[in-house]
Design a protein that fits this description.
The protein is α/β, with parallel strands linked by helices. It is 45% helix and 17% strand. It binds NADP nicotinamide-adenine-dinucleotide phosphate.
């Protein structure tokens, strides 16, 4: 099969391209960075250097493809905290669908997300609802699988600074914790050992490795699908307390805890760190929907077979990153 992969050599796209090449398919990988050409070719794939911002480039690259895998690169909020994720998702998904129509592609695998079934109440994840809607407007003879992976293990890297006590929440929350955890001040001020967010503690939720997503995407690419399909992908279901235990053991802090703070505290802490109100509100609402289970409702009605990569495996990578930073 001739397969086009977007997302360059990213978390999902690299293992995906590798597997498809090994299975004998003709694979082109789109990257916006000419310096990636050699690495892409070393995998046995063709490099299509250009941008998903460029519909003419996408149309030309998609021409003659049996299947295209379309993903939205993560938004660069650090460069532009006021970026409108919903408008960007609409714009980029429209670029893809224009190219799909013009190139006559009949099979699409779209990387969406948990929470994409909700128009509201899912905070930042609403942009995935919008992207799915744009893809669904393609003619009915275009078969589409919307992949809805759950939270990526790598999101947990974001807590490294908080665990070390260097994170944005630390100075603000530190005062509250000093009162709340009076007996544990040693941990807070000395050894640290806390993850904090407005979801955590006993909240149970699924997590996923990009390697398991890539395997599921590869299956969808090679299996025929009629019309439309949604597929959730997950590797392991765990409480935040269990996660803290596994990561804590991996980094030599077996006392690591994951405490829940209120939505109000989360919102204030984000704003204090300089995050604009609209983004802070979106992040807080997304986390709140993990705490109250709203974004997992559809997932738990359609639980997939869990993937192979468990958190204990990821914890090794977490430990390497923790010790590097
Ligand atoms: N984090 C989560 O928990 C979670 C959960 C569910 C879904 N998701 C979704 O998963 C997606 C991220 O997947 P991922 O981690 O595999 O992505 P990733 O590793 O961040 O890879 C994205 C790659 O896209 C390329 N790219 C960026 N801008 C481009 C452009 N204009 N034109 C062409 N290529 C461009 C970049 O490579 P080059 O520099 O080589 O171009 C980049 O490395 C997002 O849509 C996210 O919302 C995430």
């Amino acid at each position: 099969m001739k397969i086009i992969i977007t997302g360059s050599l990213g978390n999902v796209s690299k293992p995906l391209a590798t597997e498809l090449v090994q299975n004998g398919h003709t694979v082109s990988v789109i990257s916006s960075n000419p310096a990636k050409q050699k690495e892409i070719e070393a995998l046995g794939a063709e490099a299509a250097i250009g941008s998903i911002e460029d519909v003419a480039f996408l149309t030309q690259t998609f021409a003659g493809a049996d299947v295209v895998y379309c993903m939205l690169p993560p938004f660069k909020f650090r460069e532009d905290p006021n970026l409108d994720a919903r408008a960007e998702a609409f714009r980029l998904a429209t670029n893809y669908t224009q190219a799909i129509r013009q190139a006559g592609v009949k099979r699409v695998v779209h990387l969406s997300s948990i929470g994409a079934h909700l128009e509201k109440g899912n905070g930042l994840l609403a942009f995935h609802f919008i992207a799915e809607k744009v893809f669904r407007a393609l003619p009915s003879d275009v078969a589409i699988t919307h992949m809805r992976p759950v939270g990526f293990y790598y999101n947990l890297f974001d807590f490294i600074e908080t665990i070390k006590g260097e994170g944005f929440l630390d100075s603000f929350i530190g005062k509250i914790l000093t009162i709340k955890y009076y007996g544990l001040v040693g941990f807070i001020q000395g050894k640290r050992g806390l993850i904090m967010s407005n979801y955590g503690a006993g909240d149970k939720m699924p997590w996923v490795s990009p390697v398991d997503i890539a395997a599921a995407v590869a299956e969808e690419i090679t299996n025929p699908v009629k019309n439309r399909k949604v597929r959730y992908v997950a590797s392991e279901d765990l409480t935040c307390r269990e996660i803290a235990g596994i990561l804590g053991n991996a980094i030599g802090k077996p006392y690591l805890k994951w405490e829940t703070i209120s939505d109000k505290q989360m919102l204030s802490a984000l704003q204090q760190y300089g995050v604009p109100f609209s983004l802070a509100k979106d992040i807080t609402e997304m986390n709140a929907s993990m705490h109250n289970g709203l974004i997992f409702e559809d997932y738990y009605k359609n639980v997939p077979t869990l993937g192979k990569v468990k958190l204990k495996e990821f914890a090794k990578e977490f430990s390497i990153n923790y010790n590097k930073k």
